[in-house]
Design brief:
By secondary structure, this protein is α/β, with parallel strands linked by helices. It has five helices and eleven strands, in the order αβαβββαβββαβββαβ. The strands form four sheets. A four-stranded parallel β-sheet has the order 5-8-10-11, covered by helices on one side. The chain has a three-stranded antiparallel β-sheet with strand order 6-7-9. It has a two-stranded parallel sheet with strand order 1-2. Helix 1 packs parallel to helix 2 and helix 3 packs parallel to helix 4. The radius of gyration is 15 Å and the shape is globular. 32% of the residues are buried.
Length: 155
């Protein structure tokens, strides 16, 4: 999500961004055309995102054109998070968005986390690195995800 935030900041386009990530909001705050809002909540163990009932409550009150989201794990069937409130927040944000763009590097593929928050039928666009196995690309594209986009990068 941070790489996308950097590109959005560089685009010069006027936009409002809502995020649970300190890193994303910090990156966007320097862009004059961007209004960046942090959802709020308790600091997660990763020390970069906010979570908990406050984040969930805030997520329930927004309307989004586009939702860029990440996850701790994904496979051919499910997209999941290791934290319950993070999964709940993402599920709410997705339900309140028109276009859903999933961002995940290949290191998260075939990992398992407890809290599933969506399936591939909830995703419009998927961006990942060039190291995602061919079998995974095939499975995901068969789910009907539009424009499976692969970005070149190191693992």
């Amino acid at each position: 999500c941070f790489a996308v935030a950097r590109r959005l900041a560089e685009s010069g386009r006027k936009m409002n961004v809502i995020s649970d990530s300190f890193k994303v909001v910090h990156e966007l705050k320097s862009a004059a055309a961007v209004s960046a809002t942090l959802l709020g909540g308790a600091l997660c163990d990763d020390m970069t995102t906010l979570d908990g009932p406050i984040a969930v409550e805030a997520a329930a009150k927004v309307a989004l054109d586009v939702c860029f989201f990440s996850a701790d794990s994904f496979d051919g069937e499910r997209i999941a998070n290791k934290y319950l409130f993070g999964a709940t927040t993402r599920r709410l944000l997705l339900s309140r968005s028109h276009l859903k763009v999933f961002l995940a590097d290949s290191s998260k593929y075939d990992k398992r986390c407890c809290f599933m928050f969506c399936g591939w039928d909830d995703v419009n666009v998927f961006l990942t690195d060039s190291f995602l196995p061919a079998r995974a690309k095939k499975t995901i594209s068969e789910k009907g995800v539009e424009g499976l986009t692969v970005a070149e990068s190191a693992p």
